[in-house]
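Here's my example:
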Amino acid sequence: MTKLLASTPFINVVVKVRPKAEPGQYTVETAPAIPWVTQKDTVINYQIYNTGDNEIFFTGMSVTPEHNLQLSTPSLSISRKQLTFSDANTAPIALNITLHFTDSQGVLFSHDPQVQNQPEQ
């Protein structure tokens, strides 16, 4: 009899970007605001879903602490509307993520959510 392994856990994070009153300024919201990762080797996917009439794209991600042995190098989808990485989740730690964006005019901006690692015991 073969033993089936559980599938890879995923956390999908929805990203809403709206313009502020000043041109080139944006408000960014993520849901969930802070993903709590409890399983090892979890895939985290940030997806831009609602930008009104604005064309907004991911340009990348950075993380603090930089050398954390938890997060993989991020991958961008061809449309640049999704940013995906895996989380080893081997240590309880709060990771400060910075999501980097650009709009269709080339304006760069960022948003700094967290990812909370809480490995199951």
